[in-house]
Design brief:
- The chain is largely without helices or strands and 222 residues long.
- The chain has a domain at 1-67.
- The protein is 6% helix and 9% strand.
- It has helices spanning 3-6, 212-221; strands spanning 12-13, 16-17, 130-131, 134-135, 145-146, 149-150, 180-181, 184-185, 198-199, 202-203.
- Strands 1-2 form a two-stranded antiparallel ribbon. A two-stranded antiparallel sheet has the order 3-4.
- A hairpin with a 2-residue loop joins strand 1 and strand 2.
- The protein is elongated.
Length: 222
């Protein structure tokens, strides 16, 4: 310690003497971090200014992550007012965001189907204006099916999606060859126990586990 420091004539650099290292509780430097003095390392709590940006202090520019609140509006933080773009989800309802619940003045598109929006797929009932089995407003065909046959026009609509050879509604059988892509039919959900494509002992097409490696290990253990 120098003679000057001994008699109290310190060479202060803010809060710290550049000669002897003595510290004082004043003239701290909070410019780099509002909660930590850059000269002596003293700490304090809750002095950052996050009001303009939840993730960046407007006084010292220190940053943090994931402190914005987008729950009330996906594009405006309810804490600091910071904005962002293209974060709303209108896919389930053209007029209401499915994430934050915010509404907008957009209109549903019923032009292709009076009861199903072509943009968000939301549905409504009793809006078709039928002339026979065809809607005079959107052109959709609306059949009143009973055992796969429309009671109004007589048109038959079987469901072969589960099995190409058997209707899942009325059970009628037809002669139809499956279009096999390995073990799975490309037209219906039918799976056969042949032509599997295994990767890491699991078929990539149907998900079946390959039992051969397990059987082989059992035979080796005998």
């Amino acid at each position: 310690m120098t003679f000057k420091c001994k008699i109290g004539l310190h060479s202060w650099n803010g809060c710290k003497c550049s000669e002897c290292g003595k510290k004082r509780d004043e003239h701290h430097d909070w410019s780099l971090d509002c909660d930590k003095c850059s000269i002596c390392g003293r700490r304090r709590d809750d002095f950052h200014y996050w009001y303009d940006d939840c993730n960046k202090c407007s006084k010292c520019n220190k940053t943090r992550e994931n402190h914005h609140n987008w729950t009330k509006d996906c594009e405006i933080c309810s804490r600091c007012g910071k904005s962002r773009e293209n974060e709303h989800d209108w896919t389930k309802d053209c007029m209401k965001c499915s994430k934050c619940g915010k509404s907008r003045d957009a209109k549903h598109d019923w032009s292709k189907d009076c009861e199903k929006c072509s943009n968000c797929n939301i549905t409504r009932k009793n809006f078709h204006k039928l002339n026979g089995c065809e809607c005079s407003k959107c052109g959709s065909e609306i059949h009143d099916l009973k055992d796969c046959k429309c009671v109004r026009c007589g048109k038959v609509q079987h469901n072969w999606s589960e099995n190409c050879g058997k209707c899942s509604i009325c059970g009628i059988i037809r002669t139809h060859d499956h279009a096999w892509d390995g073990c799975k039919c490309t037209f219906c959900t039918t799976v056969r126990d042949a032509d599997h494509v295994f990767k890491d002992e699991i078929c990539v097409k149907c998900g079946q586990v390959d039992s051969f490696p397990h059987l082989l290990s059992v035979l080796k253990s005998i």
